[in-house]
């Protein structure tokens, strides 16, 4: 039931943000939404719910299959369940929740930025871009700007890209800000 609750909360909050907070103007607020903590939080809630459902069903299937294989197919009465079985069940549930939460939160950890960040959003004041830029888009801009004087490869990290973009604006903007479009900040969320 927890996974259904989390998916329900996700959908309700998403509709509140669209209809009440953004007043139906979600598209005009897309950058703020996709790079904001609200989007990331809802992404975690949604992913947590789906992962809980997946791992719970997997765990139940394993328990049922082990009962069939080892001949314990009869259901024990509630009074016959011993303390060891309760502890084992509790540990299994804690394990499922911990794994699900890990899967949901890992995309937001800065250490894994290169694996999960979809693109960057630069403040419009810098005239770098009007939209979100993928890694390939930014590399093309850097290649054109630096005329091959900087080694630009597809293996470049987001941190290295950020340093090179900052070099482009070093004379004009000392505090170049960039906001990552995280794993949950894509058009599907």
Describe this structure in words.
- The protein has helices at 2-21, 30-34, 37-69, 83-105, 113-116, 135-146, 158-168; strands at residues 119-122, 178-181.
- It is elongated and about 75 Å long.
- The mean pLDDT is 76.
- The protein starts with a helix and ends in an 8-residue tail after the last strand.
- With 189 residues, the protein is mostly helical.
- Helix 3 packs antiparallel against helix 4.
- It has a two-stranded antiparallel sheet.
Could you give the topology of this structure?
Blueprint: H1 2-21, H2 30-34, H3 37-69, H4 83-105, H5 113-116, E1 119-122, H6 135-146, H7 158-168, E2 178-181
Antiparallel strand pairs: 1-2
Helix pairs in contact: 1-3, 3-4, 6-7
Oligomer classification:
single chain
Total helices: the number is 7
Q: On the 0-100 scale, what is the average pLDDT?
A: 76
Tally of DSSP β-strands: 2
Q: Structural class, from helix and strand content?
A: mainly alpha
The global form is elongated
Largest sheet: 2 strands, antiparallel
Quick overview of this protein structure:
The chain has 189 residues and is mainly alpha-helical.
What are the main properties of this structure?
two-stranded antiparallel ribbon, elongated, mainly alpha, 189 residues
């Amino acid at each position: 039931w927890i996974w259904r609750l989390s998916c329900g909360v996700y959908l309700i909050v998403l509709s509140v943000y669209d209809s009440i907070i953004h007043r139906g103007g979600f598209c005009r607020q897309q950058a703020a939404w996709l790079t904001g903590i609200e989007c990331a939080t809802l992404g975690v809630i949604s992913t947590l719910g789906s992962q809980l459902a997946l791992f719970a069903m997997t765990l139940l299937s394993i328990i049922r299959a082990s009962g069939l294989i080892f001949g314990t197919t009869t259901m024990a009465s509630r009074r016959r369940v011993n303390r060891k079985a309760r502890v084992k069940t509790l540990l299994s549930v804690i394990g499922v929740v911990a794994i699900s939460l890990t899967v949901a939160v890992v995309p937001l950890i800065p250490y894994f930025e290169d694996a999960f960040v979809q693109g960057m959003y630069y403040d419009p004041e810098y005239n770098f871009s009007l939209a979100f830029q993928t890694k390939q888009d930014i590399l093309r801009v850097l290649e054109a700007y630096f005329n091959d004087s900087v080694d630009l490869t597809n293996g470049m990290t987001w941190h290295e890209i950020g340093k090179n973009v900052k070099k482009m604006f070093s004379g004009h903007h000392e505090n170049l800000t960039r906001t990552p479009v995280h794993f949950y900040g894509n058009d599907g969320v």
